[in-house]
């Protein structure tokens, strides 16, 4: 049974064969990705038994998605198949060509085709599903993101139900803001405020916090969200600060790597941090395992990096603080 459950939509991913705006791309390779399943896969790679709960369409993309996530060792037994709605899809656009419409080297953009998807029909009914209830009852950690409440009213209701103190049974709930402004068109993103404050571990990127919450200042964010035991703020200089409830903040710089493409790095950081939490590491080493896992993803094109062998990870974690 899983130690951690990650819940949210994943999609078929169409990755262009090279950089450039979509009007110039003729070949895409298909894979699978999504914030919460990325976290589940990286947790499994780090030795934390994990499960991913979602819904997919009764189509080839859905079957591929479940198979790919399961191939990472993630429990997919509670992924429901919707006979009517399709699996969502996203295309990735990668900058770095000479074309005038290029995004710019090192930048990427996601284009979503997910409105009305199978996963957007996630709802509190999930809690009565025996397969999902079995995993949730066993899990010591539940990972959610700010993507799910943007998808539909029923998704928002499910996230609210999962954060309800009466249903938590001592499970640690982590919540990554994952601010996706395009998904909030026509919906009120202020609902996020209450959700973020209901988590135990709140993960925020400084850029997205500035955009969604109006500040990137770790102390201000800590004061804005008093309930979580820990608020983790990842700043644009790639330093991460963890703030508990009182006591000194812990700040840890990232590893210096050649960034190939950033998608999925935030998910990898979350997985590393949560794996460090599951291992009972101190705050600094949790952050360090987050950085290390993120670095593995920053240096590849896909959503997942390859985690180095255990002895390399252990040596990096053991380095003294700078
Ligand atoms: O963090 C990476 C995710 O953004 C990507 O895999 C797609 O889940 C996704 C989303 O909704 O943006």
From TrEMBL:
GO terms for molecular function: kinase activity. Keywords: Kinase, Transferase. CDD domains: KdgK. InterPro entries: Carb_kinase_PfkB-like, PfkB_dom, Ribokinase-like. It comes from the Bacteria. Pfam families: PfkB. Residues 4-305 form the Carbohydrate kinase PfkB domain. Belongs to the carbohydrate kinase PfkB family. This is Sugar kinase.
């Amino acid at each position: 049974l899983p130690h951690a459950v990650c819940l949210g939509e994943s999609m078929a991913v169409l990755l262009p064969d090279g950089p450039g705006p979509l009007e110039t791309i003729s070949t895409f390779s298909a894979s699978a990705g999504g914030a919460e399943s990325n976290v589940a896969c990286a947790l499994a790679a780090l030795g934390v038994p994990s499960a991913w709960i979602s819904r997919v369409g009764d189509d080839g993309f859905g079957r591929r998605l479940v198979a790919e996530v399961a191939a990472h060792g993630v429990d997919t037994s509670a992924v429901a198949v919707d006979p009517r709605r399709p699996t969502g899809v996203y295309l990735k656009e990668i900058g770095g060509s000479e074309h005038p419409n290029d995004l710019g080297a090192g930048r990427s953009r996601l284009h979503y085709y997910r409105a009305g998807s199978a996963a957007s029909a996630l709802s509190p009914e999930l809690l009565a599903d025996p397969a999902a209830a079995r995993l949730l009852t066993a899990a010591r950690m539940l990972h959610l993101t700010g993507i799910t409440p943007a998808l539909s009213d029923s998704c928002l209701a499910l996230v609210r139900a999962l954060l309800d103190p009466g249903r938590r049974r001592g499970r640690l709930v982590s919540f990554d803001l994952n601010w996706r402004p395009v998904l909030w068109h026509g919906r009120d993103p202020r609902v996020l405020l209450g959700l973020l404050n209901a988590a135990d571990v709140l993960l925020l990127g400084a850029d997205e916090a500035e955009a969604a919450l109006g500040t990137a200042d770790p102390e201000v964010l800590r004061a804005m969200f008093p309930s979580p035991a820990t608020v983790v703020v990842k700043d644009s200089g790639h330093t991460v600060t963890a703030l508990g409830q009182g006591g000194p903040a812990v700040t840890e710089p990232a590893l210096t790597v050649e960034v190939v493409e950033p998608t999925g790095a935030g998910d990898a950081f979350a997985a590393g941090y949560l794996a460090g939490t599951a291992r009972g590491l101190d705050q600094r080493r949790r952050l360090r395992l987050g950085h290390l896992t993120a670095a593995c993803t920053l240096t590849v094109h896909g959503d997942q990096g390859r985690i180095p062998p255990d002895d390399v990870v252990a040596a990096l974690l053991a380095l003294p603080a700078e």
